[in-house]
Amino acid sequence: MKLREKLLQRAENYCTRNGITLSTLSSRLANDGKVLPSLKTGKDLTTGRYEAITSQLDGLERDEVPQ
Question: What is the C-alpha to C-alpha distance for residues 30 and 34, in angstroms, rounded to an integer?
């Protein structure tokens, strides 16, 4: 699995657990609602953007309340 596929999977799982859309999460993580959804069509990210998004997603996942 490619890095962008792993990121997309993590993001979609987070969205499902928290009842938000991928666009909403993308807006929160990248200030652009199109970044994460564009990964579905094979778009790429720069290394810096990938690192920034994964770092922020790490923080969000740590802050989730276990159910």
Answer: 9
